[in-house]
Amino acid sequence: MDEPSITQENRMNAQLPVRQAIRDRRTYEAPAEGRANKIRLDFNENTAGCSPAVLQALGRLSPKQAAMYPEYQKPTQRLAKYFGVKPDELLLTNGGDDALRVFFDTFVDAGSTVLICEPTFPMYRYYAEIAAAKVEALRYGAEMNFPLDQTLNALQQKPRVLFVANPNNPTGTLVTRTAIRAILEAATETAVVIDEAYAEFCGESMKEQIAKYPHLFVARTFSKATGLAGLRLGAVIANASSLAFLRRAMPPFPVNLAALLAAEVATRNRRAIRRYVQDVQQTRAWVENRLGALGAKTFPSAGNFVLVDFGDQARAVFRALEASGILIRERPDCGPGFARITIGTRKEMEAVVRTVRNAVGRRENRTIRAGKNAKKRLTFIEL
Ligand SMILES: Cc1ncc(COP(=O)(O)O)c(C=O)c1O
Question: Domain-by-domain residue ranges, the chain?
Answer without folding.
Answer: 20-51+270-383, 52-268
